Fold Lipoprotein.
Amino acid sequence: MKKIFCLLLTGLVLTGIGCAGGENEPQIGDAPVINEYKKVSITADVILKRENGTEATTCLGSGAFSLDFYFAVGGGNPLVQRGSFQLTDYFCMLIGDMQDCEVYPLDTAYEPTEVSAEADLRVHQSTITSDTGEKLDADRIQFRLETLPAGVPLDIYWYCPGEHSVPKVMPDVALLTQLFLPLYQEGWDFSVAEDYTHTSTRTNYPLNMGVTADITFTLSSTRVSSIEE
């Protein structure tokens, strides 16, 4: 009996990402015997920016997502995945009396955290034109993050000069959600060819309050004989 590996979808329903079995998975009885995998690696660098809206003190930032998926050679849902997120920058646009304030995250804000994603690989469904103009056979991968870090704070140091001012550590509970939203609220669909790395950029992804995101994806695929621990 072919085993179908399926991630439980939660939150938003993503059209086109479903439960699919690898069509070429080698099997013996009820137990798949797999000694070759397709490893698809995706990084996504997200940079927030604010170019319009009501003028106000706004704190933004950037972050890097790293996702590794291990699929059966016939595609389908991932057998194993590894995912992480790390804050890469934090900056505030200060106005009025706050322009002289000192603001920065504590070191703990930059520690990597685990993330997970829904994904589906459809083999031989596309082509990619390489940098040299060569047409490469490619697979299609669809993915989106499974959860948002709703209410998860970043600890931010604040100090505004003044006669009675004292330093404070205050939580920023919005920034992480803003950084995760583009990869959570939309399913992303890319072509990926074996042994070829390429990038794709989406600019001005709309969020809220005049904030947008620029996202740079880097994708690669390779065949491996084992799953890295």
About this structure: The radius of gyration is 21 Å. The CA atoms of residues 63 and 87 lie 4 Å apart. The chain has a mean pLDDT of 85.
